[in-house]
User: Fold this.
Amino acid sequence: MTPDPKQPTASGSSRPTIRCTRRIQFCAGHRIWGHENVCAHLHGHNYVALFHATAPELDPLGRVIDFSVLKSRLGRWIDENWDHGFVLHRDDAEAIDAVRRVPGQKLFLLDGNPTAENMALHLLDEVAPAELAGLGVEVVKVTLWETENCFAEVGR
Assistant:
């Protein structure tokens, strides 16, 4: 078994924390309810989410986790809930009504505005723990790129 990445080595120095990162792309629409500018309108983005994971120890092959597991579990959740859908504030009745008028349109409701910050926080606090439960891995940071120029980061 590979030694714990946070434990002291034989020389007494601490091993660095080892993280692995999985990139997942998706397209989703939203609006920022109450926004003072153009983001008050329904629109969409090509998002890029970076999931930074760590574990108390590396697996027998020397990994935090197989990258494909992060893709299959976290990517599946994003595909089922956000990709090619709309993410809206649960109290934004006007936008919810508009989206529900489109047959088959995917809709996900957040407790707060679907800013990059709140979406990244939802992925870190709700989605990652549920999807990776029992694997001995923790997502410690989520970076969510909303555009080529703008991103939000949340972490522990």
